[in-house]
């Protein structure tokens, strides 16, 4: 008899939807149906019961082929190389639960290495801006129940966060927003006419890379210098800036959602920094909040877990053992890889092979490379060692942090069939490292 | 002033953190004691003597000590970090954090400097004969106090984030700069003798920027108020004066609003 599991968490985007309904076969090995989830989320659940999943670690042989080995052998190989390396780097955690991230912190503290997460190539600049300027944010529940003005700046949820608009921001009817999208004003600021811009009331087609100037102009309005704004700023006419600024000033509750358009264009953290400054200015005359459109379902997790463990959310240098250091530009994964500053690489729960610049991958590939990932991906295919693990949210549960830093309990829907979780694997590696460190001492 | 000459004999495999190379740490020590000072390569703690040979003699105090670094040290960072007095001359390119948190003395680099040059510097002088990368005289991440005193002169070009959150002191870049000059600053002076792409004085509360070349994308938050003559770096020039950032909070003094200034050379 197929089993229906309600209120399942979806391990895809930062929306971390937790209302998914999954039907599994009576032996618990096959996903039969998935409801309340976008097309991408559906594929992740279906992939969980794919016949093509790799269920055993694979070690590259001298002839270039991959040979199946046991988990014990993979743990020993990884621990020995971590122990030997002067500056190993563990990077990833876009698709891992917080328990796995905490075990990674333990492992890299024992190894005396570098620990970084996908924020380093997405919302890392947002962290830097938050360090500098604070974070006047809220939860997605508050947006749903209160917000009457929504700004999407440099983000395209129609493609990247498929249920964001329907579940949290534009369309849902909340406690104080009973008329849903009819009473909401949606402003999209993006150099492209995206599918999100298509549903907006206002689309400001800002000149690519000049968002900072546009923020500056909006702030001038709030500071009483509207008359001094030039006729056009960053490709936007002064009249339109004043019109949109008026809507912002009159919001009952406004939220700015920002994405890679700001963090990945020139200035990076400064674009977010001035967005936060604008939010602070707007709070003099209205109620405004701001939120990063975090990419993965638990990419907020390592920021939270490592902040309470070490004091920093990403780009951690744990080589000094008695204190942590963090300075992106120096301790960030891509910069270290480009400078050939690390001598071992562990890629976990993301695909550095696909996302890093090719020169960075070439440098990393000179040294031992371990990929810990449930799937076959570019990083697994160029690795010296590929260790498959459970898919969080499918084969194993755990705590994840949604994009608004709200923790959500995910649950397993399939039998893991002998696969280790990230937490189990990393704790076994850390146990072995502790033994090696004790022997050396 | 006594001089210690240190010459590279062994390149590190990765990058070496030379936080011990300061007149303060060298002063009053024998060459053998200096060679025993620590340096980190990742998690491995080495001694300076594993990479350098030492000649000469250190002074009794930092003020009496000059350090000359020879050899290709572009894979070595943190020279002169937190130094308070004395002098360092590096006859090579060098890596990050040269003169970071420096309080006094002088550093000369005969080649290029990497990022985080003179971050959070409080006093002293840094001269880079080549180019510098990003975050010159800026604040450390999360700190709202960047460079607060002293002088940084870069004879070549520099990247972005020049004097971010600066509160005092002077930065002179003789070549071109990319973006973000004096962002978030509450004081200090930045002089750029080349061109700047844009974002000069964004979120600036107070401070002065002098641009001799072309400012490609000026921020909307600056308003021209007139033309002035000013003496800058030993010569007098005529500038158009702009005040701002009009989108940022401002302090008042005796009832008058204190603006930041951008001076564009005519």
UniProtKB/TrEMBL annotation, chain A:
Keywords: Oxidoreductase. SUPFAM superfamilies: Formate dehydrogenase/DMSO reductase, domains 1-3 (SSF53706). One of its GO terms (biological process) is methanogenesis. It comes from the Archaea. GO terms for molecular function: formylmethanofuran dehydrogenase activity; NADH dehydrogenase activity. Residues 53-222 form the Molybdopterin oxidoreductase domain. GO terms for cellular component: membrane. The keyword Oxidoreductase applies. The keyword Oxidoreductase applies. Pfam families: Molybdopterin. PANTHER family: FORMATE DEHYDROGENASE H, RESPIRATORY NITRATE REDUCTASE. This is Formylmethanofuran dehydrogenase subunit B. It comes from Methanospirillum stamsii.
UniProtKB/TrEMBL annotation, chain B:
It catalyses: N-formylmethanofuran + 2 oxidized [2Fe-2S]-[ferredoxin] + H2O = methanofuran + 2 reduced [2Fe-2S]-[ferredoxin] + CO2 + H(+). This is formylmethanofuran dehydrogenase. It comes from Methanospirillum stamsii. It comes from the Archaea. One of its GO terms (biological process) is methanogenesis, from carbon dioxide. The lineage of its organism: Archaea, Methanobacteriati, Methanobacteriota, Stenosarchaea group, Methanomicrobia. Its EC number is 1.2.7.12. InterPro entries: Formylmethanofuran_DH_suC, Glu_synth_asu_C_sf. Gene3D superfamilies: Glutamate synthase, alpha subunit, C-terminal domain.
């Amino acid at each position: 008899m197929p089993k229906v599991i309600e209120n399942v968490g979806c391990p895809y985007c930062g929306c971390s939807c937790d209302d998914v309904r999954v039907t599994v076969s009576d032996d618990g090995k096959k996903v039969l149906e998935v409801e309340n989830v976008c097309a991408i989320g559906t594929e992740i659940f279906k992939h969980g019961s794919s016949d093509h999943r790799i269920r055993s670690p694979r070690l590259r042989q001298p002839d270039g082929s991959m040979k199946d080995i046991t988990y014990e052998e993979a743990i020993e190989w990884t621990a020995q190389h971590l122990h030997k390396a002067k500056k190993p780097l563990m990077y990833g955690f876009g698709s891992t639960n917080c328990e796995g991230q905490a075990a990674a912190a333990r492992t890299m503290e024992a190894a005396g290495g570098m620990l970084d997460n996908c924020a380093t190539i997405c919302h890392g600049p947002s962290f830097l801006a938050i360090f500098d300027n604070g974070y006047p944010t809220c939860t997605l529940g508050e947006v749903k129940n209160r917000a009457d003005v929504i700004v999407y700046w440099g983000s395209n949820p129609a493609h990247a966060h498929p249920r964001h608009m329907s579940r949290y921001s534009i369309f849902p009817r909340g406690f104080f927003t009973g008329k849903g999208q009819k009473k909401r004003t949606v402003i999209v600021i993006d150099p492209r006419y995206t599918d999100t811009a298509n549903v907006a009331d206002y689309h400001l087609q800002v000149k690519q890379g000049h968002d900072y100037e546009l923020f500056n102009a909006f702030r001038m309005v709030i500071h009483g210098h509207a008359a001094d704004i030039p006729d056009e700023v960053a490709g936007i006419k002064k009249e339109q800036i004043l019109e949109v600024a008026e809507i912002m000033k009159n919001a009952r509750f406004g939220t700015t959602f920002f994405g890679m358009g700001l963090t990945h264009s020139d200035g990076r953290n400064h674009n977010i920094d001035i967005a936060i400054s604008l939010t602070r200015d707007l709070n003099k005359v209205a109620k405004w909040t701001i939120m990063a459109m975090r990419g993965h379902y638990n990419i907020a997790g390592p920021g939270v877990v490592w902040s309470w463990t070490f004091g920093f959310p990403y780009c951690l240098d744990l080589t000094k053992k008695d204190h942590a250091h963090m300075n992106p530009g120096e301790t960030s994964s891509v910069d270290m890889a480009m400078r050939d500053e690390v001598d071992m690489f562990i890629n976990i729960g993301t695909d550095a092979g696909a996302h890093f610049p090719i020169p960075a991958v070439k440098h990393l590939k000179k040294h031992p490379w371990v990929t810990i990932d449930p799937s076959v991906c570019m990083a697994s295919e160029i690795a010296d060692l590929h260790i498959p693990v459970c898919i969080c949210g499918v084969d194993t549960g755990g705590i994840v942090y949604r994009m608004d830093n709200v923790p959500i309990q995910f649950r397993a829907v399939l039998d893991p069939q002998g696969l280790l979780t990230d937490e189990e694997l990393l704790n076994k590696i850390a146990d072995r490292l502790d033994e090696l460190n004790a022997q050396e001492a | 002033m006594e001089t210690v000459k240190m010459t590279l004999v062994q390149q590190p495999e990765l990058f070496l953190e030379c936080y011990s190379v300061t007149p303060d740490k060298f002063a009053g020590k024998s060459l053998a004691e200096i060679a025993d000072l620590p340096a980190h390569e990742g998690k491995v703690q080495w001694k300076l003597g594993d990479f350098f040979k030492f000649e000469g003699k250190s002074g009794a105090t930092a003020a009496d000590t000059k350090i000359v670094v020879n050899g290709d040290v572009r894979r070595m960072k943190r020279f002169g970090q937190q130094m308070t007095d004395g002098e360092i001359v590096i006859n090579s390119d060098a890596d990050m954090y040269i003169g970071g948190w420096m309080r006094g003395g002088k550093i000369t680099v005969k080649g290029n400097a990497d990022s985080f040059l003179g971050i959070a510097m409080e006093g002293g002088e840094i001269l880079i004969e080549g180019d510098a990368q990003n975050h010159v005289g800026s604040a450390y991440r999360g700190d709202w106090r960047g460079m607060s005193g002293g002088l940084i002169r870069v004879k070549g070009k520099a990247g972005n984030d020049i004097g971010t959150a600066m509160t005092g002191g002077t930065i002179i870049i003789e070549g071109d700069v990319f973006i973000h000059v004096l962002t978030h600053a509450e004081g200090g002076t930045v002089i750029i003798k080349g061109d700047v792409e844009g974002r000069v004085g964004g979120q600036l509360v107070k401070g002065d920027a002098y641009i001799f070349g072309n400012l490609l994308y000026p921020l909307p938050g600056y308003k021209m108020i007139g033309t002035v003559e000013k003496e800058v770096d030993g010569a007098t020039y005529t500038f158009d004066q702009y005040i701002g950032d009009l989108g940022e909070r401002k302090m008042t003094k005796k009832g008058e609003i204190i603006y930041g200034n951008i001076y564009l050379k005519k």
